[in-house]
Amino acid sequence: MIKISKRVISSIIIIFIMPMLLFGINPSNNIEAKEVEFRGVWVATVWNIDYPSKATTEEEALKKEAIKTLDNIEDMGFNAVFLQVISCSDAIYDSEIFPWSKYLTGNQGIAPENNFDPLEFFIEESHKRGIELHAWINPYRVTAYPDDNNKLAKNNPAVINSDITVLHSDGKLYLNPGEPETRKLIVDGVKEILNNYDVDGIHLDDYFYPGKEFNDAKTYAKYGKDFNSINDWRINNNNLLIKEISETVHSINPKVKFGVSPAGIWGNKTTSNLGSDTYGWGTYENQFADSRFWVKEEYVDYIIPQIYWPIGYRTADYEKLVKWWGDVVKDTNVKLYIGQAAYNAVGAESDSEWYNGQELEKQIQLNRISNNVSGYCMFSYKSFINNKAIYNKIKELNNEESTISPISYEDYEYREIDYELSPNENEDYVVMYHDDNGKKTILPRSRYINGKVIGFSNKKGSFGVMYNEPQFNDIDINDMNGRLQENIKYMAARNIILGFDGGFHPNLSIKRADFVLMLMRMLEINNIEGLKGFDDVPKDSYYINELSTARKYGLIYGVGNNEFSPEKEITLQDIYVMTYRVMDKLGLIERTKDNSNIKSFSDYNLISDYAQEAISYFAEKQILKVNYGKLNPTKIADRSETADFLGALLKIGFDLPH
């Protein structure tokens, strides 16, 4: 049974880019290739979730639905399909090992009309469209319902060799991972697919041990004498399976990729110092699936953690998990794609973050500017068919420019100019400027240090030094503390926050949009023209480009329904969060695992969960304004407080080379 069709390899866009210049690092002459974004979608066969939508033996009906499915997938802009080919110790292809799936034809063991082979057909049709086809296998599940335990086909390997099965407490049958015959069966299935089909990948999902109470004590007694505990032995069983599949795939066809999509949390930092800052169900402890180890050992070519929670969700924050997994794949050859929950948008109410795909959009934008993330995969296909809004949303996102690199300072450099202070000059107000044919532009990140003025900029041409001490009629030293007045003038000298009508107006509140402008101005983040913005930001507004650029880079998130509320006042804690986020994107923060220092504030209980990490960091730097032990995180920020915070931050030299 040899069924090889010509492989159509997805096109690769090669873009030569200079490595990103972080502060204090000089540009390099090295170049690197950047692949097109990986955009996968799972097509599930179990329970007829996606394909076929209902079981049938009719060849034409199966072909017609496959074509419609792939037409929609192509139209939405996906470039990879994960087709579930083994879901319950059965198959949707012509196998000599597994019976035909009941989800394909209605009864396990019954073949489609004319022995039609959906896997072969999906491969051919996918490759016609330039789409990769990954064969998705559920390794251990035998039945998806307890009622199916007595409905298995006679040629099901779980019937032929029932000694390798376990009846779990959920009433369903599973292959026993501790049995060598189980691993051999799964690996033989992989070999059969590779030897007979032109797949682009072999893919395992998140079903490993179904729980800690798995009834395998006798198997452990038989095979586990070299292990200290049954849990260590179970972990090793899964490790052996992943390693054997990897070796099999790469020995038969090195061009085929092997990957796994574990549940999103490997482990929590509360139980392991290697874990993520989460509080959810971890796969290491509960399924004995050490996916982190598989990455570090490079058993897999890619990993797709299923991060099915929203950004900011305290139990399992999408953003924190993306960062954690990015750190896991760092310095390995393993690609990281993020598994996302399109199904959460189906039926979402207007007050939900998932409504109309807005959360999916924020997550994709975050993926695109996150380190070590190469794409994503959506669960599942039918979610888009059941919700026209998210169908259109994913199509829009997949068609927009996705190759914008993370914030880069590759064109920037530090400049130094000798300068001698006169007796009446304060070093805080000595700044460098760029001279463009007589038009002088002050560099916001310039300062006087030990006889030199240092500036950081991507501008070319002439540079000079000037003394620029601002004068305001409403910041008398008698009305505010010395640090506050100094930092107001320090920021105004650099044109980051300016006064008007002769005064600074320190007690006026700050709008959300204006703070973004200050932050972008302070860090000299260049605007990207023509980006999609928030729906409530007028295209002729003075902050449209800054907000659109910050949105694209993931520096800011909206308030829902693709809105930002630009004219709304901003709280102190949101100022800290926005600043922390941009510094983090620039690689300027070494995050601490311990946020306990926030408890030093008498009103720490007012700090929102999403702001704790940022406030903890700035508290450690001792730059937060505290009144009688209170932080006042929910207070509306005024102009003086904003200038004080940013000025104090600049003065500690966070942006200088060390």
Structural account:
With 658 residues, the protein is α/β, with parallel strands linked by helices. It contains 19 helices and 16 strands. The chain folds into 3 domains: 362 residues, Alpha-Beta Barrel (TIM Barrel); 59 residues, no CATH class; 175 residues, no CATH class. It has an 8-stranded parallel barrel with strand order 1-2-3-6-7-8-9-10, surrounded by 4 helices. A 3-stranded antiparallel sheet has the order 11-15-14, with no helix packed on it. It is elongated. The termini are far apart.
Integer tally of domains: 3
The end-to-end span amounts to 64 Å
CATH topology grouping of the largest domain: TIM Barrel
Overall mean pLDDT stands at 89
The CATH architecture of the largest domain? Alpha-Beta Barrel
Shape, principal axes of CA atoms: elongated
Backbone structural class: alpha/beta
CATH superfamily membership of the largest domain: Glycosidases
β-strand amount = 5-15%
Q: How many strand units?
A: 16
Helix content: 25-40%
Topology:
Layout: E1 38-43, H1 59-76, E2 80-86, H2 102-105, H3 118-128, E3 132-137, H4 157-160, E4 165-167, E5 173-175, H5 180-196, E6 201-204, H6 217-223, H7 230-252, E7 257-260, H8 283-286, H9 291-296, E8 302-303, H10 318-329, E9 335-341, H11 358-369, E10 375-379, H12 381-385, H13 388-399, E11 413-418, E12 430-436, E13 439-442, E14 446-449, E15 452-457, E16 462-467, H14 482-493, H15 512-522, H16 544-552, H17 572-585, H18 612-620, H19 639-651
Parallel strand pairs: 1-2, 1-10, 2-3, 3-6, 6-7, 7-8, 8-9, 9-10
Antiparallel strand pairs: 4-5, 11-15, 12-13, 12-16, 14-15
